[in-house]
Specification:
alpha/beta; TIM Barrel; 39% helix; 13% strand
Length: 102
Amino acid sequence: MKVFYNPGVGLENKYDVYKDIRDLGKDRICMLHIEQGSVAPETFEHLLGDGLIDFPKLKATLEDIGWAGWLSIARSRKKGRERKVEENFTYNAKFLHDLFNE
């Protein structure tokens, strides 16, 4: 069995997602669902890189376990620009592309 893992929600719920990813290992994670997660005390999403996920640590964790797979982008948008889908998605896609540039 494989999981579709969402680190943003894990962090919102106070889980150590980097440990979870290591414990699951590369063979149990089929995809990562990437959304930034809320930034306390706010309840609205932020663009990727502006919230709870430590992306350099996430990348290092994935590299350490040898994971290579799909990332899906969802729901991360700039406060006050919620309806600017193209603007938000373009930023988030570029952010991940630049980070995972292989």
